[in-house]
Amino acid sequence: MQILARLPLVAFFIWINVLVFELANQRLPEAIVEDSYNKPWRPLPNGLITAVQTRRLLLGVLSLILGASYFLGVWKETSILFTLTWMYNDLKGGDEDFIIRNIIIAAAFGVYNEGALRVATGPDHDIITPGFLWTTIVSAVIFSTMHVQDMQDQAGDSAKGRRSAPIVLGDYTARWTVVVPVLFWSLFCPLYWDIGILDGSYPWGLALSLPSASCGSETLKLIIRPGLCGRHGYHVSICCRSSIIQTLL
Asked: What is the C-alpha to C-alpha distance for residues 52 and 32, in angstroms, rounded to an integer?
């Protein structure tokens, strides 16, 4: 019950940090070009807000968010997320190479998960080894499959100059680099969390359809999250965080 009562704080921690990333990501000129192809409904390519206004908004919220994170007991995690956001956007870590991009994203997911766990359990509890192992496994899943979202974004990525997996490897080969990890994790995760091997059968079907199918947003949601929400209590925050981030993006 304590964790359930703190879920709004978990959602708040996630939301404010995703807000920082989105402002930092979408304000850049090349990001506006990319979004004009891939996500034209976003505020900047729509002309609803300017890049200068977005930058000023980012300047205004950074200190407020760091302060809020301090009171939540996760200012260290927020500081790391700020650093990863800077590396991904301003230092072009998200464009340089899809492997570097996946590493940064996987690290960010690990920090999100650890921060969410700390907020959910409160200041009187520490994360023990199973919790750290859980965040590590989720980050490994993200690292090995995150480029699935690049399949539908090739037009904008090409215009931006991003070296995404389908652009570097070719569309068909890139899809197989998602299929194999999904098949592996769909077996490994149910076995690791002792929730039954049949729970991995549905993602197997999705994975095998990926090389020949267009990867839309609904497929992405299903592929990126198989087997991650088991019976154990400390799986709650990843389910909530994933749902929130999918909604925000």
From this structure: 12
Q: Are 78 and 115 in contact (CB under 8 A)?
A: yes
**pLDDT tens readout for residues 50-83:** 999 999 999 999 999 999 999 999 999 999 999 9
What three-state secondary structure class fits 145? helix
φ, ψ for residue 168 (rounded to 5)? -80, -45
Calculate the alpha carbon distances from 86 to 12, 13, 22, 108, 202 in Å: 21, 19, 12, 12, 37
CA 27 to chain centroid: 19
The distance from CA 214 to its chain's CA centroid, rounded to whole angstroms, is: 21
Give long-range contacts, CB 8 A cutoff, 24+ apart: 150-155. 150/98, 150/174, 151/175, 151/214, 151/215, 152/38, 152/214, 152/215, 152/216, 152/217, 152/220, 153/34, 153/38, 155/37, 155/38
